[in-house]
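Lab meeting notes turned into a lecture example. A postdoc, R.K., suggested we walk through two folding results consecutively so the class can see how the record format repeats. The first protein's sequence and structure tokens come next.
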Amino acid sequence: MHGAGDNPSAWVARWARSMPQGETLDLACGGGRHARLLAALGHPVLAVDRDAQALALAAGPGITTLQTDLEAEGATWPFAPGRFAGIVVTNYLHRPLFAHLAAALTPDGMLVYETFALGNERFGKPSNPAFLLAPGELLDMAASHGLRVLAYEDGVVDAPRPARVQRLCAAGPAFDPAAVRLDM
């Protein structure tokens, strides 16, 4: 049984249905709430986290797990360019990975990203600016790596707890915009 914090992000759930079929990376997956959603939609999922206990919760049908700490000194990005049809990142920010994330997408792949932004300090943690996105930072990241922005939001949410977030859905240059489902 999984906990109350197990519900997928509404942002991820919205965009997962438009994600092209193929291997999908759930980076910093935690207990696997998005890995399970993606697997249920027919995506083979690679769930990655540094926490072995979290990965044990994330494991399940259609989900392969990998324990690695991409922030450790000397750590290298373990994934080939063009490997993933989709990448999901939530509640995690390690800026040196931006270029790797964009490169790891297939040309028609989709990146769905949602994490905390400056202003979140008034709601609690994270409050260190090193772990908070600057205004427009996800937009800048997408543009600087050749991704096309499909949707972007920057503001305050009330659930699952009050927070200031940025959300991005961006795709590679070969993504078919006709695949986007807006009536979900």
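The second example is placed directly after the first for contrast:
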Amino acid sequence: MDITDQFQSLTPNQWLGIPVALVGAVFLALGAQFQHRGVGKVEAKHGGQTGGMGFSSLFALLSRPSWVIGTVLLGLAIVLQLTSLYLSPIIVVQPLGAIALVITAVLNSSLSGVKLDRISIRAILLCVAGVALFVGIAALFAESKPVSDGQLAVILALLGVVTMGFSLAFAFLRNRFKAIGYIIASGVLYGFVATLAKVVIDRGKTGDFEWLTITCIVALIAAAALGAYFVQNAYASGPPDLVIAGLTVIDPIVAVAIGVVVLQEAASAPLWAVVAFLAAGGLAVYGVFQLAKHHPQAQR
């Protein structure tokens, strides 16, 4: 099935998932901008912290209207993302979140008065192009299959290892963590969250709610909470468009990688497609690191 057939085969309800995902991307961009502003004000009041935000800073965020508004907008973005996953295949709607990167970059540049230089703009374009190419190749060869209990157990085990690894790294290296570290951690966790959310939605459609599905929901909530904490720390140490760049690049790459490696959804892909997968993913990730290095606000 080529990319044209992938879209031609969509039902009207599945087509509806596309505008829902686009509106969700807009809310994601706006929410990120408001949350970043709230975190910045709290950090300025507390004089900045090393080793991540403490409980006092986290509770102080609740008193910042901008952060609360941003949280509400991000909540709406999550609801819309879940709705789009319910309506459409993940490989169709998941990459649309990259539009949030462009919106966030324009908003942040306008509101902060910091103009993006040519290198930063090129890095953003690399992120968007890399994700589009990566997921576009996935659309060519991916075959959606029901997730078996064994495969779900593997995904949960991988999430446990990843969560433990990031938790230990943060515990022992928290004073050396920078924005890119928080972004990578949150992006990987959210990639698992998107995958588990799709599993829960699909099992909910068939009424398949048993202990493994409940475990999946608990793991999803825990990973989302830890990812959200890392995101707040990323806002405290980097510009919002850099944070959104990491999330909209790493999140879909991890989600698709799980589908390819664990769920064998691209078992029929030829060798050139595998090479193109790696090249596109590398291009997008390179764009994130370039943005982290050259973004005017990150350099400050």
